[in-house]
Amino acid sequence: MCPGSFDPVTNGHLDIVGRASRLFDEVIIGVLINQAKTGLFTEDERIEMLREVTKGYDNVRVLAFRGLLVDFCRANDAAVVVKGLRAVSDFDYELQMAQMNIGLAGVETLFMPTNPLYSFLSSSLVKEVAKWGGDVSAHVPDMVAARLAERLAT
To answer: Which listed residue (13, 46, 127, 139) is catalytic?
Structure first.
């Protein structure tokens, strides 16, 4: 299970998904639907973009979920959550989540260090740069860059 909001999906996300797809028979990308937050892209748009950019992986599925990640893992027979870590600050937060997940449902967490090319990259940063007209094409798939430009055009 590779969970996240993916608003939008970045090349860093895809690096983790691609690496996980080589380690596991099946990888589920779990798109978190948080109704308390308004994303730049709707849940359907995020799912559509993820399906498009991962169509080259035969063992990757994209599904939406609400609520607890461990419940979603159980419902989909996913025993491992794969999380990319960019920095020590990510580890502090993710370790607490991993410990809670194993305590709640026995779901393991695999921490995967981010490729150094993507160590600074986040969806929030991509959106901020794109909002101000910056070129994010090196950080997201081409179709995502086009969708960002279209959505943020003023």
So the answer is: 13
